[in-house]
Design a protein that fits this description.
Elements: E1 11-15, H1 19-30, E2 34-39, E3 52-56, E4 73-76, H2 87-97, E5 103-109, E6 120-121, H3 132-145, E7 151-156, E8 158-160, H4 167-172, E9 177-179, E10 187-189, H5 190-201, E11 211-213, H6 222-233, E12 240-242, H7 243-246, H8 252-257, E13 263-264, H9 267-272, H10 282-299
Parallel strand pairs: 1-2, 1-4, 2-3, 4-5, 5-7, 6-13, 7-11, 8-10, 9-12
Bound molecules: NADP nicotinamide-adenine-dinucleotide phosphate.
NADP nicotinamide-adenine-dinucleotide phosphate (NAP) binds next to α1, β5 and β8.
Length: 300
């Protein structure tokens, strides 16, 4: 992250202070920003002086916050709701339009590309999603892009990082080693999401592409990443199972993750915009995540 990323003490609102939202919020806080985050319920008690201000936002419960004034940056991390609509767009857009925004980042998914049969996709590829949740996501993303706000949409594959690696499943013996011929998955370390967002904020507004893929350099089968995680923990891998054999046991949601097969190009982000990935593959990313998890549990 560069000092340039945060010019004059930004005022940031994160709509959806979950895993990625909090990581981004803390990074901007460290750079001197004033930060608000929303959550649906269970507003966390943050230690005095930590500097994170929490707001309740849950349209289904009628909880619509009055937004702080003079916001310069907004990050939207909430997915489409159960009806496929975006609660932030429906309930906060009017208030957001009154703000002097420099930038609004929207976290989308690479699911909008649909199934490319394992081929590479980039930001110019057709968005041929067939899964209902990916079609809803595409509609919400397009609505944000058409909102008249200074929106950049970041299309993300599977997000991992500390607390979101397969270490616990391996320790507990619940990890599955599944092989589906030709199937790959893409992923991104949460700190590279944060880094890519900071990198884009630091660009002049007219140099910020409206859609950017944020994916690492190493699409590969999930059996490969699980093998590396087991190696790091010095644990045995579970027995290999063929996808065709376990498919009948999977929930519709779990099955849907195996439906799309694509390799997501990061050429625009890494070559076009010059963002250097901190974790080009799961190898560096899992190693750093395990180290962070271990140092947290040593402190606790
Ligand atoms: N996880 C992945 O592997 C992955 C992959 C690609 C894209 N994405 C997308 O990237 C974004 C960030 O992912 P993440 O894993 O960081 O998300 P996350 O940890 O699940 O956080 C999402 C946040 O949004 C809030 N939220 C969700 N639905 C809401 C609604 N209808 N109204 C108000 N608030 C709502 C949640 O509130 P609570 O804290 O109260 O629950 C939470 O704070 C999401 O849109 C996700 O779908 C995720």
């Amino acid at each position: 992250m560069t000092d340039q990323a945060v010019k004059s003490a930004p005022r940031l609102l994160v709509i959806g202070g979950g895993y990625s939202g909090q990581r981004f919020a803390r990074a901007l806080l460290d750079q001197g920003a004033t930060v608000w985050l929303t959550r649906r319920n269970g507003i966390p008690e943050t230690p005095d002086g930590e500097g994170l201000h929490w707001l309740s936002f849950d349209a289904s419960q009628g909880l619509i916050p009055a937004l702080p004034e003079q916001l310069s940056h907004v990050l939207v991390t909430i997915p489409p709701n159960g009806e496929g609509r975006d609660d932030a767009l429906e309930h906060l857009l009017g208030d957001l339009r009154r703000q002097p925004l420099d930038w609004l980042g929207y976290l989308s998914t690479t699911g909008v590309y649909g199934n490319s049969g394992g081929d590479w996709v980039d930001e110019g590829s057709p968005t041929t999603a067939t899964l209902p949740r990916s079609q809803a996501r595409l509609r919400c993303e397009q609505a944000w892009l058409n909102s008249g706000l200074p929106v950049q949409s970041f299309r993300l594959p599977a997000i991992y990082g500390p607390g979101r690696c397969p270490f616990e499943q391996l320790r507990q013996g619940s990890a599955r080693l599944t092989h589906k011929p030709g199937q790959v998955f893409c992923r991104i370390h949460v700190d590279d999401i944060v880094g890519a967002l900071m990198h884009c904020i630091a660009l002049p507004p007219n140099a910020r592409p409206t859609v950017v893929n944020v994916s690492d350099d190493a699409p590969c089968p999930s059996s490969e990443t699980l093998g590396f995680a087991a190696h790091l923990l010095n644990l045995k891998l579970p027995a290999y199972r063929r996808f065709a054999d376990i498919a009948p046991e999977l929930s519709p949601m779990a099955l849907s993750f195996w439906e799309d097969n694509r390799r997501v190009s990061n050429r625009l982000l890494c070559q076009g915009l010059g963002y250097p990935l901190r974790y080009p593959s799961y190898r560096e990313g899992f190693t750093a995540s395990l180290r962070e998890e271990q140092s947290r549990s040593n402190v606790a």
